[in-house]
Write a structure and sequence with these properties.
The complex is a heterodimer of chains A (183) and B (263).
Chain A lengths: L13 H9 L3 H23 L2 H17 L11 H17 L22 H17 L2 H11 L5 H8 L3 H19 L1
Chain B lengths: L1 H14 L6 H13 L1 H19 L8 H13 L24 H52 L5 E6 L7 E7 L4 E7 L8 E9 L6 E6 L7 E6 L7 E10 L10 E5 L2
Antiparallel strand pairs in B: 1-2, 1-8, 2-3, 3-6, 4-5, 4-7, 7-8
Helix pairs in contact in B: 1-3, 2-3
The chains are: A mainly alpha (183), B alpha+beta (263).
Chain lengths: 183, 263
């Protein structure tokens, strides 16, 4: 598949790619896809548990980015975490059969983590997995239930038998452990 | 920070859309509106949540997924967005489909206007046909009456001619006394001024005063045809006569008589 536009190298700045996508540069869009489709696909596959549905979700997310690149503000956040959260929220909507147009969180997501090239992504992924691996199994399970299964705190408390307050506290402390590792 | 402690744990679940207590969410949103520190904490938690998503990275979508996306992109007309707008998922259909409701509404409107116009046109046509039918019925009834009177040899017939003999205007009447109908046919009548008409008079056989039997004006060739219904039937006529009267007719004949029974 040939795409129109100037070639994209691994070093091309993300903001520059977004700007080119806004100008209709298909090669720039292909560049963004090559960089971040793995992140989007990984989240979708983890939540939906189905390769075909995950592929469809990847299409959906990137096609919408092509159609409406202005929705992402490159000055206020990074694209990778933004796409990951959008993919997760949409996958949860599909999983829980929520309406197709549920509100999507559009706020920019600002992390200090460099995810713009494959090596940086591998490093960050390894670090995240390391942190999660060090969490107690039941706390990790709470995070997974909340994030990948889209369960509410009431549902989690009901499933695990933990008090509501404990569920909230342990989920938050798990996220803070991730933050600490990257600070 | 103690002030925010009661919200801190909830913020993490809020960042994952994991709160389901409406009252708690409303309180939290109200607090977020007025607390910059909690808003910053929420933003940081959202970044933490995004890091969590990275733990799943590894599997890559198949190559066909990339090709499918590029084909979809190439097939789409590029629309430049001037302003930031919502990033709404769940709409993989072609962009033009977004305009479908508007297009449908416009088409329905156009169709409605066309139907209204068609309806008005059909009403006009119906009314016109009804009028034509009524006219035709009237003409058919007249023709039928004429035919019946002309075919009825028992009815008295009279031919009126000009007293001056030349030219030779001629007035014929056929009278149906039971119905009180008089049919008049005239030829070669002198044309009258606009304020004058010919008036036919029935002269009762009883010798009573002449009775008005209709006014008429000949066409430019001097011909006239009139079917008049007397107010009452059963009047026997001794004769008919024609006078010239002011337009609208007169209660009594104005002399001289223009046409009278021949012989």
């Amino acid at each position: 598949m040939r795409v129109s536009g100037t070639q994209v190298s691994n070093q091309t700045d993300e903001a520059a790619l977004i700007a080119r996508v806004r100008d209709g540069d298909q090669a720039a869009m292909a560049g963004l896809y090559d960089r971040y489709s793995g992140i989007v696909y990984g989240v979708a596959l983890r939540v939906l548990g189905n390769t075909s549905a995950a592929e469809d979700l990847v299409q959906e997310v990137f096609l919408q980015l092509w159609r409406n690149p202005q929705a992402f503000d490159a000055d206020r956040g990074k694209l990778a975490p933004w796409l990951a959260v959008i993919a997760r929220n949409r996958a949860i909507d599909l999983l829980r059969k929520r309406p197709m147009e549920d509100d999507i969180d559009e706020l920019p997501i600002s992390t200090g983590v460099n995810l713009e090239d494959e090596a940086s992504q591998r490093l960050a992924i390894s670090k995240v997995r390391g942190v999660l691996g060090q969490l107690p199994a039941d706390q990790r399970r709470l995070l997974e239930m909340a994030f990948f299964e889209g369960l509410t705190h009431t549902e989690i408390a009901s499933k695990t038998g933990e008090p509501l307050g404990t569920v909230k506290t342990r989920i938050r402390s798990g996220l803070l452990a991730l933050r600490k590792a990257f600070s | 920070m103690k002030e925010h402690a009661q919200y801190a744990d909830s913020l993490a679940l809020y960042a994952m859309h994991g709160l389901d207590d409406e009252r708690e969410m409303a309180e939290l949103r109200e607090h977020l509106d007025s607390c910059g520190e909690c808003r910053r904490e929420l933003e940081a938690l959202r970044a933490d949540v995004a890091l969590l998503a990275l733990s799943t990275s590894g599997p890559q979508p198949p190559q066909r997924s990339r090709e499918r996306l590029m084909q979809a992109i190439a097939a789409e007309p590029r629309i430049q967005h001037k302003h930031k707008s919502r990033f709404v998922l769940g709409r993989l259909q072609p962009r033009w489909l977004r305009l479908a409701p508007t297009l449908v509404a416009v088409l329905v409107l156009i169709a409605s206007v066309a139907l209204v116009r068609e309806n008005l046109h059909l009403r006009d046509t119906r009314d016109r046909l009804a009028r034509e039918l009524q006219d035709q019925r009237g003409r058919a009834a007249l023709a039928m009456e004429v035919m019946q009177m002309m075919n009825d040899s028992s009815l008295p017939r009279m031919t009126l001619v000009s007293a001056r003999n030349v030219p030779q205007p001629q007035v014929k009447t056929i009278y149906q006394p039971q119905k009180g109908h008089v049919l008049l046919m005239a030829n070669n009548l002198p044309v009258l001024p606009d304020d004058k008409v010919y008036e036919l008079w029935l002269l009762p056989s009883t010798g009573a005063a002449p009775m008005a039997a209709g006014t008429f004006s000949p066409d430019p060739k001097g011909s006239a045809l009139m079917l008049h219904a007397m107010q009452d039937g059963g009047i026997q006529a001794k004769a008919f006569a024609v006078t010239v009267e002011p337009r609208g007719g007169s209660p009594t004949p104005t002399m001289p008589i223009q046409f009278a029974p021949a012989g």
